[in-house]
Amino acid sequence: MRVLLTSFAHRTHFQGLVPLAWALRTAGHDVRVAAQPALTDAVIGAGLTAVPVGSDHRLFDIVPEVAAQVHRYSFYLDFYHREQELHSWEFLLGMQEATSRWVYPVVNNDSFVAELVDFARDWRPDLVLWEPFTFAGAVAARACGAAHARLLWGSDLTGYFRGRFQAQRLRRPPEDRPDPLGTWLTEVAGRFGVEFGEDLAVGQWSVDQLPPSFRLDTGMETVVARTLPYNGASVVPDWLKKGSATRRICITGGFSGLGLAADADQFARTLAQLARFDGEIVVTGSGPDTSAVPDNIRLVDFVPMGVLLQNCAAIIHHGGAGTWATALHHGIPQISVAHEWDCMLRGQQTAELGAGIYLRPDEVDADSLASALTQVVEDPTYTENAVKLREEALSDPTPQEIVPRLEELTRRHAG
User: Fold this and answer.
1) What are residue 3's phi and psi, to 5 degrees?
2) Its family?
3) Which of 50, 84, 105, 107 would be 8's cystine partner, CB 3.0–4.6 Å?
């Protein structure tokens, strides 16, 4: 069958789609990836066939006032301490309004939706798998008669909150049932003769790649697949080719955005605290310039995460799904300094399961970070629990093993 994967131009989101794309390809299906032009190199680098459509989004160019409105519903989604608030009608409606006004229309811009629909109508895929922010994929699928599903790369917050919102909305008086996402999708789909249905918001089904302990209960039809992290095309650097006996810690992801790395002096103090670790600390990504670092600190712009973590005792990161999944896959303890979207939730879940420590970015400092590192490295129960989570993840079917199920669902939903 013909399978079309689609994503707005966000490299790490796309990377979460790659293992299943290759599983479908090696099963003999014709697979193409339609995305905004900025993603083309990443698609080609994954060895997949790219179809550039539309114009690139400008999500990160939104003005601070608008960003603040979105952040009210995307920062510190604390399921452990804000549960009642997060499930209130006011919060659920506010989230639907903010994302449907300031996020989804920006990443699904008019030219992207139109050109994706045109391509789908011409190529006639049997199945469209869409990244969960890329609602254009659902519209294109309905416009050409294909089956379609969301391919989740992280925690299903969109499906979870959409389900809670709809349940409360339908209990309200008929004259007071606003639906910002439904209204926006109705307008977008209507341009192509497609009527709104809830499948445009959540897919006809979803593919969830998180292990059982981390899945959110959405009540929706879901196909479970093993998390199999892909970190992008890469080359192993010389320093990582050998020295497998070297004891390492990895620090990665948004480090420069933390208060403990606000400037070069603060960054240097943080590194000095962490350098007490007996081994090498590899710090990836950008941080403030510093003229000197301790001898056991290695600063690098990029490193193949899957290779590095094979020889790490622990990782400190910002909670991103790809980094988190790679650490989970290798069974190492995680220290998550996270606050955005689903990053906080996974960090808290990992900590609750005894495989790491969660730290709030607005509370962490050099001392607390160094203390957390010492704790997860010296207490073997963190590694033991991380290995248990790895084993749990490995119990899920591989992407290749779910292909027959996807074929069956495609036959059921097509047309």
Assistant:
1) -125, 125
2) Belongs to the glycosyltransferase 28 family.
3) 107
DSSP per-residue string spanning 148-167: EEEE-SS--HHHHHHHHHHH
What three-state secondary structure class fits 379? coil
Question: What is the distance between the alpha carbons of residues 412 and 197, in angstroms, rounded to a whole number?
Answer: 17
pLDDT digits (tens, 9 = 90+) for 105-161: 999 999 999 999 999 999 999 999 999 999 999 999 999 999 999 999 999 999 999
Beta strands in 288-338 (DSSP E): 297-300, 312-317, 334-337
Return the pLDDT at 252.
87
Question: Exposure string (b/e) for 21-57, b if CB count within 10 Å is 16 or more?
Answer: bbbbbebebebbbbbbeebeebbeebebebbbbbebb
Residue 302 and residue 270 in contact, taking contact as beta carbons nearer than 8 Å = no
Radius of gyration of the chain (CA): 22
How far apart (Å, rounded) are the C-alpha atoms in residues 187 and 196?
9
What pLDDT shows up at residue 295?
87
DSSP string, 185-235: HHHHHHTTT----THHHH-SSEEE-S-GGG-----S-EEE--------S--
Long-range Cβ contacts of 222-226 (<8 Å, 24+ apart): 223/149, 223/402, 223/405, 223/406, 223/409, 224/396, 224/397, 224/402, 225/20, 225/396, 225/397, 225/398, 225/399, 225/402, 226/393, 226/394, 226/396, 226/397, 226/398, 226/399
Order of strands, edge to edge, in the sheet holding 312-317? 297-300, 280-284, 248-251, 312-317, 334-337, 356-359
Torsion of CA 404, 406, 409, 411, to 10 degrees: -70
User: Whose structure tokens read 């069956």?
Assistant: 408
Beta-bridge partners for 250: 282, 315
Domains annotated for the chain, with CATH where assigned, are 2-227+396-413 (3.40.50.2000), 238-394 (3.40.50.2000)
Between 242 and 54, where is the model more confident?
Answer: 54
Phi, psi of 176 (to 5 degrees): -130, 60
Distances (CA, A) of 350 to 249, 266, 333: 18, 28, 9
